């Protein structure tokens, strides 16, 4: 019975039910694993491209006709030589590059923007490494017949159905214009086809963007599920982090900083600050409801002592110079502790002086 009970505990400890820790997220991010929808990237690229075509389409069409006329009216009448062919090819390449540059830039901006909105700035050389396990046919078959593959198939069918419906609706509403293409000039035909194509692209991209938002939510859910950790994983991670000297030093440094801030926040509440005067500073407080004797609120040497004195001065805390007392209290009394009995008389005289001064003020 005891054996079965321990097995159950091990099973539940190994079950991945806990959210990933920040360290686990950082590790998988270094490997290039993040929640990202490729459909969202495609939608951004298409929208950017078709928006550019919407505003620059007429000008691009004019440039295309210019290249077309130049080809048949100028280049066709030139002598065919090695130099002429090279010159024609170079000119055509430059003109086509200028023609397509806005579209290419728009596609690049759309892709970068979509990636940045999803994962931020991320450079992961580790994800570029060749992994031979990806060539394993058994693992490949498992990926093909997995639940994820079925989900991707359903997503593809949904995309084809919705985007196909959008394309059919736009073509149906423009059916009369399309049937009348044979009755208009070639230039007008090109312009009409380009206008309908841009309209198709914008509406189809909008539909894809709508679907990709749901795809992104699914990818995020699937990613969070894939990086879940078991309770045992979290324990081992904490153990390894505690064993890291760098992590330990950072924790100690953070603890010292927090303790220092708390100590400095207590200085304004002190009754008196006893100084050396330059090297030591000890802030004391007497509260009969808390302790029977005065106790130390803060203490420090050199830079910390100067900071204690600066805060005390800003809050009108009286400072008294007493070198042996300051040194003795610093060596023998800890923060939060009552002063040793041997200093009672000296501290009582100082507090009596402070109370007299405060009454006069």
TrEMBL record:
It comes from Perspicuibacillus lycopersici. One of its GO terms (biological process) is protein secretion. GO terms for cellular component: plasma membrane. The keyword Cytoplasm does not apply. The chain crosses the membrane at residues 40-57, 96-117, 153-173, 185-218. InterPro entries: FlhB, T3SS_substrate_exporter, T3SS_substrate_exporter_C. Gene3D superfamilies: 6.10.250.2080, secretion proteins EscU (3.40.1690.10). It holds the Pfam family Bac_export_2. Required for formation of the rod structure in the basal body of the flagellar apparatus. Together with FliI and FliH, may constitute the export apparatus of flagellin. It is a multi-pass membrane protein. It is found in: Cell membrane. This is Flagellar biosynthetic protein FlhB. NCBIfam families: flhB. Belongs to the type III secretion exporter family. Keywords: Bacterial flagellum biogenesis, Bacterial flagellum protein export, Cell membrane, Cell projection, Cilium, Flagellum, Membrane, Protein transport, Transmembrane, Transmembrane helix, Transport.
């Amino acid at each position: 019975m005891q054996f079965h009970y321990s097995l159950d505990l091990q099973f539940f400890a190994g079950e991945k039910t806990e959210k990933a820790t920040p360290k686990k997220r950082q590790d998988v991010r270094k490997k290039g694993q993040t929640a990202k929808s490729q459909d969202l990237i495609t939608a951004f690229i298409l929208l950017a491209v078709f928006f550019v075509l919407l505003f620059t389409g007429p000008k691009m069409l004019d440039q295309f006709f210019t290249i077309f006329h130049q080809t048949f009216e100028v280049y066709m009448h030139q002598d065919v030589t090695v130099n002429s062919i090279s010159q024609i090819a170079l000119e055509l390449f430059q003109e086509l590059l200028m023609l397509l540059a806005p579209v290419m830039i728009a596609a690049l901006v759309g892709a970068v923007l979509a990636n940045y909105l999803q994962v931020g700035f991320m450079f992961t050389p580790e994800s570029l490494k060749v992994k031979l396990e990806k060539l394993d046919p058994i693992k490949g078959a498992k990926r093909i017949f997995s639940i994820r593959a079925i989900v991707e198939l359903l997503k593809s069918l949904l995309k084809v159905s919705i985007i196909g419906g959008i394309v059919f609706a736009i073509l149906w509403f423009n059916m009369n214009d399309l049937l009348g293409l044979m009755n208009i000039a070639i230039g007008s035909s090109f312009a009409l086809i380009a206008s309908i194509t841009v309209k198709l692209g914008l509406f189809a991209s909008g539909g894809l963007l709508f679907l990709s938002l749901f795809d992104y939510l699914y990818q995020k859910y699937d990613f969070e599920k894939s990086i879940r950790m078991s309770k045992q994983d979290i324990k081992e991670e904490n153990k390894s982090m505690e064993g890291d000297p760098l992590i330990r030093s950072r924790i100690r440094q953070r603890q010292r900083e927090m303790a220092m801030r708390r100590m400095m926040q207590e200085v304004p509440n002190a009754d008196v600050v006893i100084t050396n005067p330059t090297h030591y500073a000890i802030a004391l407080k007497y509260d009969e409801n808390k302790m029977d004797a005065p106790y130390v609120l803060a203490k420090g040497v050199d830079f910390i002592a100067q900071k204690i004195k600066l805060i005390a001065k800003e809050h009108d805390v009286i400072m008294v110079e007493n070198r042996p007392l300051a040194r003795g209290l610093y060596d023998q009394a800890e923060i939060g502790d009552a002063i040793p009995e041997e200093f009672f008389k000296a501290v009582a005289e100082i507090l009596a002086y402070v109370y007299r001064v405060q009454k006069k003020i």
